[in-house]
Every structure is written in structure tokens, then in C-alpha cells.
Amino acid sequence: MAGHMSPCSSSSSSSSSAMTFSHATSSEFHKSLDKFLVFPRKTPESSWVSRIRSRNRSRKSFQLKSSNEHPVSSVSLHDGSSLAKEHSMPSVKESLSPVNSESEKFESTYSITVVGASGDLAKKKIFPAIFALFYEDCLPKNFTVFGYARTKMTDEDLRTMISKTLTCRIDKRENCEDKMTQFLKRCFYHSGQYNSEENFRELDIKLKEKEAGKLANRLFYLSIPPNIFVDVVRCASITASSTSGWTRVIVEKPFGRDSESSGELTRCLKQYLSEDQIFRIDHYLGKELVENLSVLRFSNLVFEPLWSRNYIRSVQLIFSEDFGTEGRGGYFDHYGIIRDIMQNHLLQILALFAMETPVSLDAEDIRNEKVKVLRSMRPLQLEDVIVGQYKGHSKGGKSVPGYTDDPTVPKDSLTPTFAAAALFVNNARWDGVPFLLKAGKALHTKRAEIRVQFRHVPGNLYKRNFGTDLDKATNELVLRVQPDEAIYLKINNKVPGLGMRLDRSDLNLFFKARYPREIPDAYERLLLDAIEGERRLFIRSDELDAAWALFTPLLKELEEKKIVPELYPYGSRGPVGAHYLAAKHNVRWGDVGGEES
Ligand SMILES: NC(=O)C1=CN([C@@H]2O[C@H](COP(=O)(O)OP(=O)(O)OC[C@H]3O[C@@H](n4cnc5c(N)ncnc54)[C@H](OP(=O)(O)O)[C@@H]3O)[C@@H](O)[C@H]2O)C=CC1
Ligand SMILES: O=C1O[C@H](COP(=O)(O)O)[C@@H](O)[C@H](O)[C@H]1O
């Protein structure tokens, strides 16, 4: 069975000292925002580069922009102290636009090594995201991509494999073929075992060849099952970390399966890496609408005053997929939907939603606020959770499989493929407000959204016109994370004409209509942030601990008591129990009934 954490000593063949990887200085993320210029990250290439160049010419400073436009590891020639500190880690944009011989001296190289390059995630998401960054001219001049896995492949085989999943931006497609060819020339492959220092040493030699003596920054993306994370980090740290620039490691979830295993994983990783070097990815934090949540809230006066128990009746975070665990049943059965979606993606959104205003957009300020929210929540109780599992059925000559029909899933599996839960943030702002989380596979639709249901209007003058069901007149703010990103607010208005008939309408910001260009994939944003050293969208270890503390007792209880999930048909709206759970907290799910626009 996949997924058991190996203790860090498991296959360690040699001892090593802590923090073998070299890492960026902490000053990287302690700069104040207003010290720097602000550039939009994605403007067309010519204007973007020329803007940087002209600013650099006039101010002699380089700017590196991460997803919050916060210059993270920039080098300012105005600031002697930061110059001295950070010469060892020039920024991406710096190497994009060398402007004087001083900077030429420090020209740096960047490599991204995708460990587990033969796998599903690498093919589907990571290589396409790196290419998209290249296509958008967001990558530095000197960059190399390496694939690493056990599968025997040549460089050419890797290129053929990844070329099948590369796509150019829908709204551009200019020079697409050329760009792909240029990109593929930068891609190389090394076949090796995950626990072999020798094989990583060979990788190091190949990396050094490409780096050609320049200052080298290395990013490792661990796109592998979690039971080999520590082996890889150990081997790479001992034999393949950069000795001149930074070394960073992106770790894919799952980060453990409960508090203990997660703590153990963190402890093991920290034998070889400092916290600054670990980039725990939760790709939902890279989604456009999740990014927009804080903007909506903190840059519009109309929302923030309403953002509390005084006006908000419930917050609903909903994830549904219209397919089952096909092909991933073996992995999934060890985790279940609560660990796969709720404890990370939905909880992260909840923390961003509920946090207090951070001191600044600095990663540490934001993550401090998120941790406070998580630590203000009471651990989940069994009575506030319902679990379900999809079953197969046949309809009109077509049959769909149940979860346990998957040959890699035990026939008597009790693993939930659906869960709904009510969580509470016990602080002054949110006391008593249910945060309803719902996540499920093999449901009737694919969707992720944040629904904010406001309280009923007190002493409503128009009560008569709404009829008896006041819930139907409740204002609701919806952030549709996917598909068809949108932000809309349900309001009540008068139907034009004589008489007084009320209607419910949407004030709608539909992103495709407003911004008719493709929205970057979450992995693009996150990869760029990792290259640029922006940690805001990555999970800090104390956040992770707090998240597991909320779910671990419940997960244990579910397993110990062998709670049987409620069966629901593949393609349905999920177990009825979810409605009882909402009703218990005096609310209704916003995504059911005629209201789900
Ligand atoms: N796929 C997805 O959509 C998502 C995946 N993730 C996470 O990302 C990581 C990678 O996912 P994914 O690509 O699906 O994983 P895969 O199962 O496809 O594994 C990736 C690669 O790791 C190697 N590998 C697989 N199993 C083992 C094993 N038991 N021992 C040693 N090596 C093994 C294989 O390469 P080789 O045999 O060539 O060495 C494989 O190609 C996982 O941690 C997963 O949980 C997170 C979110 C979504
Ligand atoms: O992390 C995961 O996410 C995917 C859903 O991601 P999305 O970006 O396509 O919404 C989910 O299918 C998978 O089970 C889970 O591990």
C-alpha cells in the first residue's frame, strides 16, 4: 500500500549533518513592500522586459516579482546592506536582464529537477506549467529542466513524453512550435533510484555541466509517493545540492496522514533542509479565485465590514468532482476524501477566508494570521461530520463502477469518498458561525466554490413579497473557483412593472467575459513563486501541525469505530446525510435546489 511514511533513517546508508542544502538568507522575505518598485508580473514580453530594463537603467535596481508583486529576493543597488547580503542569490529577473558588468559577474543559473518525472502529475501538470512559464517569458535566461525517475529513458524519450502534454496559451499561440522546440532543448533526463546517493551524484555532475561554473540555484520538485520523500531529500542533499546558490525543495501532498506521521515527516525533512527550503505545495492556494479572495475582502470597503458573525450566517466551502478515483484507488484508499481534499485544500481556503487583516502581504504575516485561525478552531467532532462512499449502478444500458469495484481497493473498504463537516472558529469574529465543508468524488458535477450566506434582513419590509421562505431571500456571495471562474452576489430586486414583485438576481463578475484570456494554471504561479523564493502560498510547518490537530482525532475515531459511510450513487448529489448536517446548523447548502447558478 502506498503512502506509509518511512522513518528518516529507513534507508539511509550514511549519516549526514542537518541543513546540508545551502539556502537563501532570511532577509529574503523580511523586506518591506514600499521599499521597492511594483511591476505587474505578466505583461506582454516586449513591454515587460523593456519596462524592467528601463527602470533598471534609471534606478540601477533589479526587481523580482512573485505572485503578490512583492519583491522577494531582489537586489537593490541603492541599498548597500541588501546588496552585500544577497549577491549570492540574484533574482530571476536579474538574470533576465543583466544591465552592467557587475551583474554579469553574478549571472546565475536555475535548474528545476522534477523527481518522479515519469509520473502522472509530472506529465499532466508540472512540465506543462514549466513550459507555460517559459512561453510567457517568466523563466530566467539560464535555466535547465531535469527529469529524474527510475524508468529508463533518454533525454529524447523525455522530450517526446512531455511534448505530448505541452500546450501554448489559447489566446496567443504565436511561435508555439518554436517555443516548444526551444523549451525541449532545455529538458534533460537522468534515470536513477530514489535512495541512491550515487545516482544523485551523477545528476549533480550533469547539473554542473549545464551550470558551467555560474552561480547555481536548484529547485527539486518531489512529484513522487510520500514514502520516498525522505530518501530523495537525503540523497539529493548529500550529493546534489547547490554549493553556490540556493537549493529549494517543493514537496507534494500528502504531508503525512495524521499529526504523528506529519510531525515525523517534518522532523525527517528538517534533518536535511531548513524550513525556508521546504515549499509544501497546496495547489488550491495557487488558484486564481483563491488568490482573489483576499483582494476582494481587503481592497473593497463594502465587504470587510460584513465579514463577521454579525452579518454572515454560514460559510460553505464546496468541492465536487464528477469522476471517481479511477486509476488512483490504491493511493486514495489509504487517505480518503478528508485527507485528500478537506484537511488541506478546503481548510486552507477557510483559513484565508477567516483570518484577520495581516500586517502586510509578507509571507510570514499572512501565514501567522492563518495559523491563528486554525488554532482558534475546535477539533472536529464526529457528530459534526457525515461520510459517504459512491456505489456503482446501471442506467439505460450504461453502467458506472462503485468505489470498491476498483481492483486496487479492498472490497470491504470503509474509506470515505465524500464528507461533509461543520467547523467552528472560536474567536470574536466568528463565534457560532458554521463553516460547512463538503467534498466528494463521483458526484453530478465538477465544481469548487466558496459560498457566503448572509443573515436575513432584520424586520424586512418586504417579507410579504418573499413568501414564507426567508432563506430564498438571503444574500449570498459566491466565489466560483472552478470551472468558469466567477464572483457573484445574489441580491433581491424588484421585477419591473406595476405591482411589487421581488426577484433574486446576480451581480456577476464572470472572469471569461471580463478578462478573455486564459487563466494560468495554479502550478505555474506556485512554481514561479518557488523559484522566486516567495513563500506566501506554501504551507509552513506550524500551519500543517495546526491543520492536522483539527482532523486527527476525528480520523482516528472514524477508523477505530469503523464508521460505515453512507452509500450514494455515482453521479448523484451525494449522501442525504449532508442535508441533515446543514439543517442541524440551521442552514441549507447553497449549491443544491434551484439556487445553484
Ligand atoms: N496525480 C495527481 O493528480 C496528484 C498527485 N499528487 C501527489 O503528487 C505526487 C506524485 O503523484 P503522481 O504523479 O500521481 O504519482 P505516481 O504514482 O504517478 O508516481 C510518480 C512516479 O514515482 C515513481 N513511483 C511510483 N510508485 C513508486 C513506489 N512505490 N516506489 C518508488 N517509486 C515509485 C514512478 O516513477 P518510476 O517508476 O519511473 O521511478 C512514478 O512515475 C504524489 O505525492 C501524489 O500524492 C497531488 C495532487 C494531485
Ligand atoms: O489534490 C488533489 O486535487 C485533485 C483536484 O485538483 P483540481 O485542481 O483538478 O481541482 C483531486 O482530483 C485529487 O484527488 C487530489 O489529490
TrEMBL record:
Keywords: Carbohydrate metabolism, Glucose metabolism, NADP, Oxidoreductase. It comes from the Eukaryota. Its EC number is 1.1.1.49. InterPro entries: G6P_DH (IPR001282), G6P_DH_AS (IPR019796), G6P_DH_C (IPR022675), G6P_DH_NAD-bd (IPR022674), NAD(P)-bd_dom_sf (IPR036291). Pathway: Carbohydrate degradation; pentose phosphate pathway; D-ribulose 5-phosphate from D-glucose 6-phosphate (oxidative stage): step 1/3. It catalyses: D-glucose 6-phosphate + NADP(+) = 6-phospho-D-glucono-1,5-lactone + NADPH + H(+). It is found in: Plastid, Chloroplast stroma. GO terms for biological process: glucose metabolic process; pentose-phosphate shunt, oxidative branch. It is an enzyme of class 1 (oxidoreductase). Residues 1-21, 43-98 are annotated as: Disordered. Residues 295-589 form the Glucose-6-phosphate dehydrogenase C-terminal domain. One of its GO terms (cellular component) is chloroplast stroma. The keyword tRNA processing does not apply. One of its GO terms (molecular function) is NADP binding. Residues 114-292 form the Glucose-6-phosphate dehydrogenase NAD-binding domain. Its main location: plastid. Residues 52-62 have a biased composition (Basic residues). The keyword Oxidoreductase applies. Residues 63-76 have a biased composition (Polar residues). Belongs to the glucose-6-phosphate dehydrogenase family. HAMAP family: G6PD. Catalyzes the rate-limiting step of the oxidative pentose-phosphate pathway, which represents a route for the dissimilation of carbohydrates besides glycolysis. The main function of this enzyme is to provide reducing power (NADPH) and pentose phosphates for fatty acid and nucleic acid synthesis which are involved in membrane synthesis and cell division. This is Glucose-6-phosphate 1-dehydrogenase. The gene is LOC115756251.
